[in-house]
Amino acid sequence: MRLNHKTIIIIGASSGIGRQVALQLSKQDNNLVILARRENLLTFLSEDIINNGSRCLPIAADALCSQQMEGAVELAIDTFGIIDAALINVGDGPAFNMASTTANEVLHNMAINYNTLVYSLLPLIAAMKKQNYGLIAHTNSLAGFLGLPRQGPYSAAKAAGRMLMDTCRIELAQWNIKFLSLYPGFVATTRVSDDGIPAPFEISEYSAARHIIHAMEKEKQDYLFPLALRWLIRLARVLPKPIVATITKKMMS
What we know:
Elements: E1 7-11, H1 16-25, E2 31-36, H2 39-51, E3 55-60, H3 66-80, E4 85-88, H4 103-131, E5 134-139, H5 152-171, E6 177-184, H6 205-217, E7 222-225, H7 227-236, H8 241-251
Parallel strand pairs: 1-2, 1-4, 2-3, 4-5, 5-6, 6-7
Helix pairs in contact: 1-6, 3-4, 4-5
């Protein structure tokens, strides 16, 4: 799928990777539906998208509210008639220590990273079943493959998202709906600039967006990046757990 002359919805577009994906796609003559909570940032982004030659529908909505997500997808369909592709790019990964955190903190972080996927996914699936095709991409994380130190709830939520997308890929194939799980490593966004967590092989937002657009256009199923971490994760999945734990602890300390 070449991502030009398409209608694309980006959930979590106001900043970071989502914003950069929207800006890059806006140079390819698309209809862009941009969604986030911060309406003022969406307004600024919408202006940039229009100046780059694409059409834009900004929608201020909370991905933790199923009704708002359903309404956003309905509005996108009413405006442009179809959704060719979607990027679900919502999440947060503050540092946690399982020796001192609370149950509410863990569950809230998991909701931000997993419930937002569910609330976004279901109305998109319903819309794409009617049109009998579409591509849904989800920004997961390489942390979804490993239980990283100080990232336990985040890793757990991302692992759950990975499994859910794998199931969707099988069950929705009859409607020609394709699913892409994106697994970035460390990306230099403003959100994580002062979280105190080491970030080996960190890449820029711009580079991350290029990877995401490439994977969407190639209609990958799973896409891990950058290359160095891709091979480290694949190696870690076959090594004994004590060895993986030792390596991970050294990388993240």
